[in-house]
Amino acid sequence: MQDMGMEGHQMKVLALLLLTCFGAVGRSAALKMDRRNLLANGLGKSPPMGWNSWNHFQCNIDETVIRETADALVSTGLAQLGYHYVNIDDCWAELNRDKKGYLVPKKSTFPSGIKALADYGIDYLKYDNCNNGGSRPTVRYPVMTRALMRTGRPIFFSLCEWGDLHPALWGFKVGNSWRTTNDINDSWESMVSRADQNEVYADYARPGGWNDPDMLEVGNGGMTKDEYIVHFSIWAISKVAPLLIGCDVKNITKDTMEILANKEVIAVNQDPLGIQAKKARMEGDLEIWAGPLSGYRTAVLLLNRASNNTSPITASWEDIGIPPETQVEARDLWEHKTLGTYFKNELTVTVQPHACKMFVLTPVAPAQ
Predict the structure, then answer these.
(1) Among 135, 160, 157, which Cα is nearest to 23's?
(2) What pLDDT score does 37 carry?
(3) Which of 124, 144, 188, 230 has its CA 20 to 30 A from that of 33?
(4) Do 256 and 130 belong to one domain?
(5) Which is catalytic among the residues 123, 128, 186, 248?
(6) Where is the signal peptide (predicted)?
């Protein structure tokens, strides 16, 4: 990709999203949805990663913010970790289209136009649900799918239907990801409720088509560090796609960087097996989330949703799908250390309120 003139940084793999809040889609919306998979772009084999402008900036964006954010993704090392997409959300366009019906960049905030930011083309489209004229998403979204397939370039297609018509049930034929929830906000209650809603559709996620409970709020200030760790951990183990940073990367804090740059947690999200974790057990405010990883490993998240009480949580092999009597090595992904003993049949740890522990369990051969 070309140098975008961002203080000398070469943007090798960063991309741009155009959010489209379409009105009525016209007579082409009458096209019937094919029974076969309409979207054959080869993308989304693992959850895409990047940044989106909405959660932090909302409509307070301009071309300088976008350029500086792309610079910051590179200079902080986040791009090297996989955060490749630079996604412009709403408010980049004028309210009215031109005479040919095309969206027009807002002159006051994007005077150089969109091509100045992405003259190599668009790699990602988020198609939102606002101002849809009452058209059915199962009709409207396939029209865009066909249009994208005719562009001659692979474009990741994110369906942002807000989960209204359960897009997990039909989205795989149409897009690479689909929103399973309404918009998130920067609070514990909003975050865990989105996680709960998204988990219901775990069986529908797979490489090429993923569940999306909305973008990350990590670093926006509305939660504690422990709560943001829970947020990032659940999104990672749930194979959330896209995994999009939603804070001001230009002014990122040390604590936020430690969370978003955790290579071991990112690796769980990007694991090639591509199976979304589920809740394996719930007892009051205590939860165990688990899912298989490649190499016969298991990712486990022990979550304490209580506001005040510190509690022990036990993950039994029966609950998390490990054969009985299997001996495992436990890697703590937030402490970045392997526990000093092997475990058989269960693992018990103490978890603080509004916090979690996250492990990768790897089978080991018994001692001879």
Answers:
(1) 135
(2) 63
(3) 124
(4) yes
(5) 128
(6) 1-30
Name the one residue in this structure whose structure tokens are 């001659």: 152
Q: Does the annotation count 214 as an active-site position?
A: no
* In a shared domain, residues 163 and 182: yes
Of 3, 119, 164, 183, the active-site residue reads: 183
Q: What is the dihedral of CA 337, 357, 291, 232, to 10 degrees?
A: -100
Beta strands in 250-326 (DSSP E): 278-283, 286-292, 298-304, 311-316
Which amino acid appears at position 154 of this protein? P
Instruction: In whole angstroms, give the CA distance from residue 152 to residue 359.
Output: 42
Across-strand partners of 69? none
Domain count, the chain: 2
**Average pLDDT for runs of 10 along the chain of length 368:** 34 39 32 52 96 99 98 99 98 96 97 87 94 94 96 96 97 97 99 99 98 99 99 99 98 99 99 99 98 99 98 99 98 98 98 99 80
> Distance between alpha carbon 17 and the CA centroid of its chain, in Å?
14
pTM score, two decimals?
Answer: 0.90
Verify whether residue 62 is a known catalytic residue. Answer: no
Instruction: Examine the domain organization and report whether 161 and 262 are in the same domain.
Output: yes
Residue 189 and residue 331 in one domain: no
